[in-house]
Specification:
The chain is α+β, with helices and mostly antiparallel strands. The protein has one domain. Strands 1-2-3-4 form a four-stranded antiparallel beta sheet. A hairpin with a 2-residue loop joins strand 3 and strand 4. Helix 2 runs antiparallel to helix 3 and helix 3 runs antiparallel to helix 4.
Length: 206
């Protein structure tokens, strides 16, 4: 519709929010933590293994002290006739009387050095075992406890006290002690782990 003066009305301006053609800046990427992940080192031995080592050492030293205090050297007490005696002998060699008859210069120092090297090697091997290799870890704990027990004797007296005498008739097994027994049982556990007993096999996928 045209007004009477013949001039068309000006278009009505509708105000609204101004549209911006500028693109909003994208958020800055979050900073990546460059700090390297620190993996917690697995302890050399677990608390249970420490208890096992300490128990073996304590029992070994207590029994040896009791034998030294109550049984004269080379004497014996019969526990089971024709099978088991408790005796008192001094072993300057290795476990079960090995090298006891051998005599060479600085024998005591050599045996202490060998025992120390064995302890270091066993400790290094134990550090490489996984937590799932329980038989080996417990076996090495027994071996370490026995080795420590005998090493204490060698360092203090230069010899190890053996007192368990197992025999049948005239056939005698080598006299041994608690430390030797722990070393033997520990070695058996490690061998059982090596042949596969005690390992946890992963289940096969269906």
């Amino acid at each position: 519709m045209i007004p009477e003066d013949g001039v068309p009305p000006a278009p009505t301006h509708v105000e609204g929010p101004a549209l911006s053609t500028e693109t909003a800046p994208s958020p800055a990427p979050s900073a990546v933590d460059a700090t390297p992940l620190v993996t917690e080192a697995r302890p050399l031995v677990s608390p249970l293994e420490v208890i096992a080592i300490g128990t073996i050492v304590c029992v070994d030293q207590i029994t040896k002290f009791a034998v030294r205090s109550t049984i004269p050297l080379y004497a014996k007490h019969v526990i089971i006739p024709n099978l088991l005696d408790v005796t008192h002998v001094q072993n300057t060699g290795a476990a079960f009387g090995l090298l006891n008859a051998a005599d060479f210069p600085y024998k005591s120092a050599v045996m202490i050095g060998i025992a120390t090297l064995a302890l270091v090697a066993i400790s290094i091997y134990a550090r490489q075992l996984g937590a799932h290799e329980r038989l080996s870890r417990y076996g090495l704990a027994l071996i370490l406890g026995g080795a420590f027990g005998n090493l204490i004797d060698r360092a203090i007296a230069g010899y190890v006290v053996d007192f368990v005498d197992v025999y049948w008739g005239e056939a005698h097994f080598w006299a041994f002690n608690v430390a030797d027994a722990a070393i033997t049982i520990g070695a058996i556990l490690v061998l059982l782990e090596m042949v596969g007993l005690g390992r946890r096999h992963a289940s096969h996928p269906v």
